[in-house]
Design a protein that fits this description.
It catalyses: XMP + L-glutamine + ATP + H2O = GMP + L-glutamate + AMP + diphosphate + 2 H(+). This protein has a nine-stranded mixed sheet, with helices on both faces. Strands 12-11-10-13-14 form a five-stranded parallel sheet, with helices on both faces. A hairpin with a 7-residue loop joins strand 16 and strand 17. Helix 8 runs antiparallel to helix 9. It folds into three domains: about 180 residues, Class I glutamine amidotransferase (GATase) domain (Rossmann fold); about 190 residues, HUPs (Rossmann fold); about 100 residues, 2-Layer Sandwich (GMP Synthetase, Chain A, domain 3). The chain has 14 helices and 18 strands. With about 525 residues, it is α/β, with parallel strands linked by helices. The protein is globular, with a radius of gyration of 25 Å. The chain binds adenosine-5'-triphosphate, xanthosine-5'-monophosphate (XMP), glutamine and magnesium ion. The site of glutamine has 11 residues, from strand 6. The site of xanthosine-5'-monophosphate has 18 residues, from helix 10.
């Protein structure tokens, strides 16, 4: 082990190739920059997010077909507000400014931007006045999603209004002579009814992208990048058997074959039978080196008496790295550590260096990492969402049951065992959890419910069993419907199935006398309870 990387280092998504259609998103600190990128990728056009102040020289090297300027929390007229290289507006490629990005584009051509009379947040009816190419296929009236306080006050001599809302006369604009467009609303969020069409029109019709990009191409690029970066060194990959790390391992295997060693940490926080099933599944599908480290005692010792969720996560994040380091001592040239980190892990940890995002929870593999790792990090999925990773897994020929597994967080049962994490409490939770999954599977709901589990609450309640009083544990059942795990709805599990889950848990799991069902969505709740 000789790398001295820090938690901040990782592989950025996608190297661009000169012969390919690329759209760049200049990120001004938007909450939704990644959503812009994925909506563009949905149009089969490769899209890369870059710093807002990337120089024009560098942009020319990357040779994009168009630029999208994202939204952002600042005001364009504010001191120290993030600004692009002013020369981008002289590039001969189309530009689409979204919200803050539109305000920047208009201001660059002489328009005034200042606080509007009314701030606009959420659903708004948008009326198209002069659609043109950008609005092709978008009805005259539709719902768009707004989130702004500032407003472009005049169009100078350069712009025309394409669409309006009740409070915003310039909801969409186009430059008279140049391919510069602005949208005050957010086409990238699903609440904007025809946002996909708008972005599709921009990248395909206006920028002239052919829409030929496919996941297979992305995989090929990543494979080449990984080969170049790793050279003759070895990579150790934290393998949990979950979707993300399995896809990372498959990608690395494709790239560097036998230079890959995988490490499964059995931290005593896994579900029933999990370590064994990962080993079997792994051996069937990868022919590389797998180390299984039994570390239950270490994890439970360090977690003893800890009840604060963030502390649990930090302790677990650090222990994972300690275990990887120790195990790597027996693996020569283990310079890199690969993890299946996804974008939601990054944004919820408040760890996006270009973003203003708040810390929701320190995901063990991002916010929970110690500052000095001793490895260089490889995180090829860091900019992707779960459903994109699943598509990648299928493309890499991973078996369906692996690709469609419910996610299971690295901190595992520790963040579902509210209060103290003790061996006997984990055992109770494990038994209840297995029943939840078994009943959903029997009811044919496993795939449709994207994540389901049991939570052991830190309280007791009174019951009566066999005519005797009990004062026992409570299990909460959680099942959610979601695609990208950024937002989620509680799943409407049929009453009969809930009934069977409850009866089986109370009758079979010792020490539990009550089962409840969690009916909260994300936001305002999160999927996990801690
Ligand atoms: N028990 C474990 N042993 C080794 N590495 C792990 C373990 N648990 C998590 N990791 C590492 O942390 C990363 C993030 O965990 P996370 O749970 O988000 O992803 P995953 O387990 O690969 O997929 P899924 O989200 O489907 O559970 C994993 O990709 C893996 O690299
Ligand atoms: O590897 C992980 N390490 C973590 O620390 C972590 N926290 C949450 N999750 C998973 O992320 C998704 C979103 O979860 P939340 O709505 O609870 O934030 C859900 O799928 C969660 O299971 C984690 N995964
Ligand atoms: N969402 C945004 O980009 C907001 C831009 C700017 N901060 C405003 O309030 O108008
Ligand atoms: Mg997992």
């Amino acid at each position: 082990m000789n790398g001295q990387g820090t938690a901040a280092q990782s592989t950025p998504i996608g190297a661009t190739r000169e012969d390919e259609d690329v759209i760049l998103v200049l990120d001004f600190g938007s909450q939704t920059a990644q959503l812009i990128a994925r909506r563009v990728r949905e149009q089969h056009v490769f899209c890369q997010i870059v710093r807002h102040d990337l120089t024009v020289e560098r942009i020319r090297e990357l040779n994009p077909r168009g630029l999208i300027l994202s939204g952002g929390p600042a005001s364009v007229y504010g001191e120290n507000s993030p600004q692009p290289d002013p020369a981008i507006f002289d590039l001969e490629i189309p530009i689409l400014g979204i919200c803050y990005g539109m305000q920047l584009a208009c201001r660059s051509q002489g328009s005034e931007v200042s606080p509007g009379q009314h701030r606009e947040f959420g659903r708004t009816a948008c009326h198209v006045v002069e659609g043109g190419d950008l609005f092709a296929g978008v009805p005259e009236e539709s719902i768009v999603w707004m989130s702004h306080g500032d407003q472009v006050q005049d169009l100078s001599d350069h712009f025309t209004a394409l669409a309006t809302t009740d409070t915003c006369p310039f909801a969409a604009v186009k430059h008279h002579t140049r391919e510069i467009y602005g949208l005050q609303f957010h086409p990238e969020v699903t609440h904007t009814e025809h946002g996909g069409t708008l972005l599709g029109n921009f990248v395909r019709t206006i920028c002239g992208c052919t829409g030929g990009w496919r996941m297979s191409e992305f995989i090929q690029q990543e494979v080449e990048l990984l080969r170049e970066r790793v050279g003759n060194n070895r990579v150790i990959c934290g393998l949990s058997g979950g979707v993300d790390s399995s896809v990372v391992a498959a990608l690395l295997y494709e790239a560097i074959g036998s230079q890959l060693s995988c490490i499964l940490v059995d931290n005593g926080l896994l579900r029933a039978g999990e370590a064994e099933s990962v080993v079997t599944c792994f051996q069937d599908h990868f022919k590389t080196d797998l180390h299984v480290v039994r570390a239950e005692e270490l994890f439970l010792k360090e977690l003893a008496g800890v009840t604060d969720p963030q502390r649990k996560r930090k302790i677990i994040g650090k222990l994972f790295i300690d275990v990887f380091r120790k195990e790597a001592e027996s693996i020569p040239d283990a310079t890199f550590l690969a993890q299946g980190t996804l974008y939601p892990d990054v944004i919820e940890s408040g760890a996006d260096p270009d973003g203003p995002a708040a810390t929701i929870k320190a995901h063990h593999n991002v916010g929970g990492l110690p500052a000095e790792l001793g490895f260089e990090l490889i995180e090829p999925l860091r900019d992707l969402f779960k459903d994109e990773v699943r598509a990648m897994g299928l493309e890499l020929n991973l078996p369906e049951e692996m690709v469609w597994r419910h996610p299971f967080p690295g901190p595992g049962l520790a963040v579902r065992c509210l209060g103290e994490v003790r061996k006997e409490r984990l055992e109770t939770l494990r038994e209840a959890d297995a029943i939840v999954i078994d009943e959903l599977t029997k009811a044919g709901l496993y795939r449709e419910v994207r994540q389901a589990f049991a939570v052991l609450l830190p309280i007791q309640s009174v019951g009566v069993m066999g005519d005797d009083r009990t004062y026992d544990d409570v299990i909460a059942v959680r099942a959610v419907a979601t695609d990208d795990f950024m937002t989620a709805d509680w799943f409407h599990v049929p009453y009969e199935v809930l009934g069977r889950i409850s009866t089986r848990i109370i009758n079979n799991v010792r020490g539990v006398n009550r089962v409840t069902y969690d009916i909260s969505s994300k936001p305002p709740s999160t999927i996990e309870w801690e």
